[in-house]
Design a protein that fits this description.
It is built from 7 helices and 8 strands. The chain has 165 residues and is an alpha/beta fold. The termini are far apart.
């Protein structure tokens, strides 16, 4: 008799480097036989969730594990716009090479990136559009990573509302 897989929806939080723990959680859930049918995330959770949803999480993990301190420094591109210290384009070029030009609505599982509209100070759920743009909006940290403009809104990490950053 075949045992049916249990389905699960994941909500992944923010946390920068701590967000890498999401990879281990996903791997363990799969080992335990869970079928992840939807995923949402904020900040690093949005990135890890996006990579999982498009089948590129293992490739990302392998890339991250090869980075040394010099590699990380080379990925930092400072911004002179006054909107944030780091532009983030170099890192997102690497991520775009991994995931390609994928639209959220074309993913095999449901995906939501959570961000904050900095002007209205309201949470925004991004469920349609280019996946990379949604992730970029969700990881933008006020004063550190430049905000992402989408449809006339300037979007940043949802932690601004949740934690008053």
């Amino acid at each position: 008799m075949k045992k049916n897989k249990q389905t699960i929806s994941l909500v992944l939080g923010s946390g920068g480097a701590r967000g890498y723990a999401h990879i281990g959680v996903i791997e363990e859930l799969e080992l335990q036989g869970y079928d992840i049918v939807s995923i949402s995330g904020s900040s690093m959770g949005a990135l890890i969730g996006a990579l999982y949803a498009c089948g590129k999480l293992e490739e990302f993990k392998e890339w991250v594990l090869t980075l040394d301190m010099l590699d990380v420094v080379k990925l930092i591109d400072f911004s002179l716009t006054g909107e944030g210290i780091i532009q983030g384009d170099k890192v997102f070029q690497v991520i775009e090479e991994m995931i390609g030009d994928v639209m959220i609505e074309d993913l095999p599982i449901s995906y939501t990136a959570v961000a904050t509209d900095i002007m209205k100070q309201k949470e925004v759920w991004i469920q349609k559009r280019k996946l990379l743009d949604a992730v970029r909006a969700s990881i933008a940290i006020h004063s550190i990573f430049t905000p992402k403009e989408i449809d006339g809104r300037y979007l940043i990490d949802d932690g601004v509302l949740s934690f008053g950053l």
